[in-house]
């Protein structure tokens, strides 16, 4: 057990207003993109989270000057003096995040070589990087895996290529984008991921001077250009964080307004939220006018009273139900009447956290079968990737150890919804992706304390 523990006195509905900033899964990639330019870039609304610190550290090691801008959350990146960093210096960041893999293309373009430390990130399955390596090799990179990390060179430069992803991986799509924009010639990527964060990264790259066409049927075509400039960008808001607070409102019988949440990016979540019996209202942003200060919009989520209803859902790539929305929502599903079914089709081992919920009184059974309409890659491979949740169950307090980021937030929600006092160990992991979550909990009236 660690000292890193939060004591949660559960049973109080969360109520109030919080704000989400730029999406973690875009901001960190936009920061890497700044390395590709020969002019400064400016990114707004950057959340103070661990992943941002890791990417900032890696950029600084490679000579990018990173400074805080005038606005809170604004970062300015000056890549005028990009330089090599030593393996030892880079290895300080080993095991801390998965973003370093995306430095491959930009460093090869800027320096002709790259060293990538061992990756970190959440333990939600094996999380291989074979698509990344295959794509990089097709661009012309030479990839050497060593015990301390991965060394890459590009002896004859990087050249456009045709590549089809075996699965629409978010990271591998970003890898191809960040490499193809400065590669010589045209790249065609088939079966690409088209998550809103990827479209926003394309917007960033386009602002820098890239030529990228997003065709129908998951085909992206990139025309390499000889140079890129800087960008000024306000990222899309964090739709995973917004949904996490929505699930917390529902599970605790509360009401939370998430300022900054964007309806268009959350449509699939909103449909499920309503099917379960949750209520929400989209509030639009009002620009300031003479005599009126204006107002930031968002989405207000609440439990309207009465019983919640069981649902069947499958996680999927965009525009499906995000895998990262699954864990927080399952806590609310423990309060729904009937049998809910969740088929996790993105990661093979993302249901382990349900054991902790069972310990708190939930009734969740996990299965190896595909319990859903879409047969997935894991059905015949013996992975427990479907769950049946029988509800409603009264949750009681427990001592919990946080296993990964999203599951960690779901543990926290469960502790907030449960009667009694829980101790949640390893909460610092939540700082990887949720800015100021303890301050936000306090703003929503949660009774939590550090012992
Ligand atoms: C991104 O991870 C996100 N992380 C994840 O969010 C998110 O869950 C995931 O996309 C799916 O939306 C970041 O953006 C930093 P993938 P990524 O490549 O890019 C398999 C969070 O909590 N695969 O789309 O690593 C892989 O094993 C995190 O914020 C290969 O087989 O995800 C998985 O089953 C967790 N070989 C599937 O593809 C590869 O080379 C999807 O992974 C790459 C991926």
Automatic annotation (TrEMBL):
Position of the signal peptide: none
The organism's place on the tree of life at top rank: Bacteria
Catalytic activity as recorded in UniProt: phosphoenolpyruvate + UDP-N-acetyl-alpha-D-glucosamine = UDP-N-acetyl-3-O-(1-carboxyvinyl)-alpha-D-glucosamine + phosphate
Stored SUPFAM superfamilies: EPT/RTPC-like (SSF55205)
Positions of UDP-N-acetyl-alpha-D-glucosamine binding: 98, 324, 346
Chief location category: cytoplasm
Top EC class of this enzyme: transferase
Residue ranges annotated for the Enolpyruvate transferase domain, each copy included: 9-441
InterPro entries assigned to the protein according to its UniProt record, in alphabetical order: Enolpyruvate_Tfrase_dom, Enolpyruvate_Tfrase_sf, MurA_subfamily, RNA3'P_cycl/enolpyr_Trfase_a/b, UDP_GlcNAc_COvinyl_MurA
Keywords, alphabetical: Cell cycle, Cell division, Cell shape, Cell wall biogenesis/degradation, Cytoplasm, Peptidoglycan synthesis, Pyruvate, Transferase
Positions of modified residues (2-(S-cysteinyl)pyruvic acid O-phosphothioketal): 122
The keyword Cell cycle is assigned to this record: yes
Pathway(s) annotated for this protein in UniProt: Cell wall biogenesis; peptidoglycan biosynthesis
Assigned EC number: 2.5.1.7
CDD domains tied to this protein: UdpNAET (cd01555)
UniProt entry tagged with the keyword Cell cycle: yes
Cross-referenced Pfam families: EPSP_synthase
Sites where the protein binds phosphoenolpyruvate: 24-25
Positions of the catalytic residues: 122 (proton donor)
HAMAP family recorded: MurA
Summary of the function given for this chain in its UniProt record: Cell wall formation. Adds enolpyruvyl to UDP-N-acetylglucosamine.
Family: Belongs to the EPSP synthase family. MurA subfamily.
Name assigned to this protein: UDP-N-acetylglucosamine 1-carboxyvinyltransferase
Source organism of the structure: Plantactinospora endophytica
Gene from which this protein is expressed: murA_2
């Amino acid at each position: 057990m660690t000292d890193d523990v939060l004591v949660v006195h559960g049973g109080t509905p969360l109520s109030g207003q919080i704000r989400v900033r730029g999406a973690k899964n875009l901001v960190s990639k936009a920061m890497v993109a700044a390395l590709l330019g020969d002019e400064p870039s400016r990114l707004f609304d950057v959340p103070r989270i661990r992943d941002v610190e890791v990417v900032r550290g890696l950029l600084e090691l490679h000579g990018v000057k990173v400074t805080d801008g005038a606005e809170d959350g604004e970062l300015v990146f000056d890549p005028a003096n990009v330089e090599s960093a030593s393996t030892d210096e880079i290895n300080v960041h080993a095991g801390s995040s998965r973003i370093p893999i995306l430095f491959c293309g930009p460093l090869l373009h800027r320096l002709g070589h790259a060293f990538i430390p061992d990756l970190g990130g959440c333990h939600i399955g094996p999380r291989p990087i074979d698509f990344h390596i295959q794509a990089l090799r097709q661009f012309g990179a030479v990839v050497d895996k060593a015990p301390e990390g991965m060394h890459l060179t590009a002896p004859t430069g990087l050249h456009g290529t045709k590549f089809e992803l075996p699965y629409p991986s978010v990271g591998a799509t970003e890898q191809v984008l960040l490499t193809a924009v400065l590669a010589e010639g045209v790249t065609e990527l088939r079966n690409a991921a088209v998550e809103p964060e990827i479209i926003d990264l394309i917007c960033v790259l386009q602002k820098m001077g890239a030529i990228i066409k997003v065709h129908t049927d998951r085909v992206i075509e990139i025309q390499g250009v000889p140079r890129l400039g800087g960008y000024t960008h306000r990222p899309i808001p964090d739709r995973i964080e917004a949904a996490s607070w929505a699930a917390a409102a529902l599970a605790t019988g509360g009401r939370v307004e998430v300022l900054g949440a964007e309806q268009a990016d959350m449509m699939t979540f909103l449909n499920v939220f309503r099917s379960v019996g949750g209520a929400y209202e989209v509030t639009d942003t009002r620009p300031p006018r003479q005599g009126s200060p204006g107002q930031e919009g968002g989405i207000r989520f609440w439990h309207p009273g009465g019983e919640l209803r069981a649902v069947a859902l499958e996680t999927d790539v965009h525009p499906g139900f995000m895998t990262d929305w699954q864990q927080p929502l399952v806590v609310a599903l423990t309060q729904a009447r009937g049998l809910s079914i969740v088929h996790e089709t993105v990661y093979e081992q993302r249901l382990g956290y349900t054991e902790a919920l069972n310990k708190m009184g939930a009734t969740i059974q996990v299965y190896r079968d595909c319990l859903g309409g879409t047969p997935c890659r894991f059905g015949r491979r013996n992975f427990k990737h479907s769950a049946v949740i029988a509800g409603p169950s009264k949750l009681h307090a427990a001592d919990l150890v946080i296993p990964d980021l999203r599951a960690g937030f779901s543990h926290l929600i469960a502790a907030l919804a449960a009667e009694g006092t829980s101790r949640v160990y390893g909460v610092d992991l939540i700082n990887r992706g949720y800015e100021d979550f303890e301050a936000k909990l306090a703003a929503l009236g949660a009774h939590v304390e550090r012992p």
